[in-house]
Design brief:
Layout: E1 2-11, E2 14-19, E3 24-28, H1 34-46, E4 53-60, H2 63-99, H3 104-111, H4 115-123
Parallel strand pairs: 1-4
Antiparallel strand pairs: 1-2, 2-3
Helix pairs in contact: 2-3, 3-4
Length: about 120
Amino acid sequence: MKTYHAEVTRDGKFWLIRVPEIGRSTQALRYKDVATMASELIEIMEDLRGDEYDLHLKVRLPDSVTDHQARAEVLREEAQRKQAEAAAEHRAAVQELLALGVSQREAGEVLGMSFQRVSQLAKSS
């Protein structure tokens, strides 16, 4: 089964779709229509049905957009690490209060947490 590659870029208000294997291009107004337009181009130009080939889309975004996406991913990973650290600190605070003989209900009131959250943290230690 032959594979076709659709190279997709933004060109003004359209998505430009180039299929190098057939040396042809088309366009779509909305991204959701890109795969359909690429498929129709291939099927018309190569006289194929949809089940006779594979289509792979390669979207090329401006460098500034990919830079923002990469930075967002770094920040998301950092936020996950920080969230795990915060949970560990909450757990430590709960454990220390419980070790001092404070009830789970009182620990929740003092720490500004629900009794259920204190109970969860106490069990996760």
